[in-house]
Amino acid sequence: MKTTVLFKQILMKTTLSFCLTAALSVLADAQSGSGGCSGSGPCNSELKFKNRERETGSNSNPVGTRYRFKSVTNNVDALVTIDSLVNGATVEEIDESGVGHESAFQPRVKVPGGLLPKTAYAVFRIRFVEKNDTTRKSIPEVGATAIDIDGNLLLKEFSEIEMGSGSIMSFLSTTPHISVLNINILGLLKGFKGANILGVELDGIDTIAKTNMFSVTNQNVTEFTMRAGSSYLLASSTERQHSFYMKSFTYPSISTLPVKVETFNAILSSSSKVDLKWITATEVNLSHFVIEKSYNGVVFEEAATVFPYGNANTRADYAMSDNIAGATAPVIYYRLRSVDKDSRVTYSVIRIIRLSKQAENNKVTILTYPNPATNEVRITIPASWQNKKVVYELFSTNGQVAKKVETNSSNQTESLNISSLKSGLYLVKASCGGETAQEKIVKQ
Questions:
Q1: CA distances from 123 to 45, 83, 91 (A)
Q2: Largest Cα–Cα separation, the chain
Q3: pLDDT at 312
Q4: What is the DSSP string of 225-250?
């Protein structure tokens, strides 16, 4: 569907308003040094990582090399040590300037690439000391934010921040491009890991892209650890820029969103039609919905505009069909964009429709991909199972249930997050009514 002149005007106002608001927010952060903190949530002053000097080590033997960043705050220096390099990773630049934010810690890490799946990363240990000395110094409150955790189809970046017990993590949980997991050692919380899951490459290093960042804060910090690297498959050697802003950011909460979408489903009803259905619990100040469609999961185009029933605090049901008779791509991605009258925009989860003979017939078989899988596995079920209750189970080699998910109204293709599972062989089993189907996958 072509965009109308009126909708183009709305889109232009949305973009201009968003960019102006984001620019003013970043400017205010830079002037105040507060990291955009206001209202609820942890706040702290920014630590400035500039003016480095190498104190020990060499380029030929980088592990153990220590750098001093002078005056990160009043009368406090930071000692940054390359603690270790894993699976062939190298640190090409300890703190790159000219990109991102000059006061951020921005290591450029090279991963070797190869034909086999691998994860390579650098480990940095940060210790606070008295100015021009090595006596440890405690900072009352420290915030660190990993920015621009992006990737592509073959390579996905990740960042880890370990500040120990008592640390608090925040991120944009409504429309994330990353998954954020707890790091526990012997049952104790040590930190958090943010890993890219969508494989969308972002330009530059930008704090406006809150979908690709997470923040960690803690109190009375003398030392903490950060890791920067990538997981990849069939990728060539490449250098990736990582950025850690030494402050925390405020992320929008669900309560501030214009509409609460409870479900968004995509059902392949025939070889030429996809039924899209969604349910809202509340609609406050809502302007319209936009159905977006993509054939690669990266670039989305507008498929239709749907206007709401009006402000409501009760359940509202919506449905429309998309004609796919001329589609030639094997996979179609759908998402729902909600736009409110103040130009704020939110996105639903992405639903996947697979156009294959296996998806169109009623054979009791399932299709699992990618295989091997790293962060998520997608399961395409028979056409006769769609819109029904389906149970998805992953079994380890010892027969134990490693993950179980139930859906009361299953989409044609469901995505299961398996980033927390150990590497190895798993059996994927799907059940609907009295029918079952199963496939084997490898978790990297």
A1: 24, 5, 10
A2: 72
A3: 61
A4: EEEEEEEESSB--EEEE-EEESS---
**Cα–Cα distance between 287 and 339 in angstroms, integer?**
6
**Cα(211)–Cα(180) distance, rounded to whole angstroms?**
11
The predicted model scores a pTM of 0.52
Q: How far is CA 428 from the centre of its chain?
A: 24
Encode 276-307 in three state secondary structure: EEEEEEEECCEEEEEEEEECCCCCCEEEEEEC
The pLDDT of residue 376 is 84
Residue 41 Ramachandran class (φ > 0 left, ψ -120 to 50 alpha, else beta): left
Strand order in the sheet with 273-283: 259-270, 273-283, 316-323
Judge whether 243 and 100 are in contact, CB under 8 Å: yes
Contact at 8 Å (CB) between 370 and 377?
yes
How does pLDDT run across 285-342, given as a tens digit for each residue? Answer: 788 889 999 988 878 888 888 888 766 667 788 999 999 888 888 889 999 988 887 7
In Å, what is the CA distance from 202 to each residue of 27, 206, 207, 227, 381? 21, 9, 11, 20, 32
Read off the tokens for 196.
Answer: 């890219």
How confident is the model over 9-18, as pLDDT tens digits? Answer: 333 333 333 3
